[in-house]
Amino acid sequence: MTAGMIIGVLALQGDTREHLHALAELDVIARPVRRPDELDSVDALVIPGGESTAMSKLALEFGMTEPLRKRIAGGMPTYGSCAGMIMLAGTILDGRADQVPFGGIDMTVRRNAFGRQVDSFEGSVDISDIDGGPFSAVFIRAPWVEEVGPDVRVLGRVTAGPAAGRIVAVRQQHLLATAFHPELTGDLRVHRYFVEMAREAGQTTEG
Ligand SMILES: NC(=O)CC[C@H](N)C(=O)O
């Protein structure tokens, strides 16, 4: 069912195009999603990196917040990178008061957690479900995960440096989030893992 599967990439704000490119390398149809009717036509969704406060505001303006919350809570496989991770969090620290996440993952994330002095850096992250060695992970004003609920599996932590041990990749059933940007490094393993998740979900719902 992979061949016919359609994966949307939220296209309100952020690096939508890079995710579309990454998905195009895999055996799926990938399209941008801006409106509720476009959301209805996809089997799974990627929420890109960018600026989560801007994304939240645009989602409210485009009438996307409620439809997204419903689909995500209803089992649509969804992957969020960086700002996308923030939007999938139940609780945001250092967010804006008017920021409304889509939720879904029982976790608390801290925005811009790695500190102001380091805007972006590359670190090494092992992801427990993904073979092939550690990721060379790009962090850009990235969040980290401060707390997870009992249903959340921690998949990856920063391995070295001052932020060593910080949680930067998680999964809760059909939902996946990373604080870094695999769409920027040409390493397709996270996208492939997500496509596999989406395919499994499709098989379950289609019997
Ligand atoms: N690269 C990113 O997606 C950065 C996330 C951004 N700092 C935010 O809070 O939304």
Compact overview of the structure:
The chain is an alpha/beta fold. The protein has six helices and twelve strands.
Give a structural overview:
- The chain is of the alpha/beta class.
- The protein has six helices and twelve strands.
- The chain has a nine-stranded mixed beta sheet.
- Strand 11 (167-172) and strand 12 (175-178) form a beta hairpin.
- The longest helix has 18 residues, at 189-206.
- It is globular.
- The relative contact order is 0.18.
- The model has no long low-confidence stretch (mean pLDDT 94).
- It comes from Dactylosporangium siamense.
Features:
alpha/beta, 9-stranded mixed sheet, 3-stranded mixed sheet, 12 strands, binds glutamine, glutamine amidotransferase, Class_I_gatase-like, PdxT/SNO
Write the layout of secondary structure elements.
Elements: E1 6-10, H1 16-24, E2 29-33, H2 36-40, E3 44-47, H3 52-61, H4 65-73, E4 78-81, H5 83-87, E5 89-93, E6 105-110, E7 120-127, E8 135-140, E9 144-148, E10 153-158, E11 167-172, E12 175-178, H6 189-206
Bound molecules: glutamine (GLN).
Distance between the termini: 12 Å
User: What helical percentage do the residues reach?
Assistant: 25-40%
| Low-confidence segments | none
Mean pLDDT reading: 94
| Main sheet specs | 9 strands, mixed
Order of helices and strands: EHEHEHHEHEEEEEEEEH
**Count of runs of 4 or more consecutive helical residues:** 6
Oligomeric state of the chains in view: single chain
